[in-house]
Amino acid sequence: MLLVLLFSFSLLSYAEDTSEAENPASYDSNQITHPEWFIKITDWSYFTAARVAMLSSVKIENTAAIPYKDIKVKLLFYNSSGPAVGQTIATTQGVLPVTVPPKSTGIYLKGGTTMGAGNQGYRVSDIQVLSATPIVD
Known about the structure:
CATH architecture: Sandwich
Number of helices: 4
């Protein structure tokens, strides 16, 4: 009897809800609650101009089925000179003012965007996606 009950429960748990299959955003709610899982920054260009950190030519990949905008990122800097060479010495956060289409890879911010104060000896070692605003109808 217990075996029959467990089998029946397992069949019910695998039943598909057709309303979720029609809307990709509701089908995978993680795309809305955790956009950082679906957005990857794979390449970037960074420079310092007059002590201002500029981020440009950012390559962003979106593996989700929905678009995102206003991607919040964290930049990790390492020192390229002095006694702390190679060590992470600073971080900054900012918003990339872009809209990324679903299932796409593209290069954004060709004109650049300011990402806080900079130093000639700083180099960006990593860019982490913290959040983004999902665009749902």
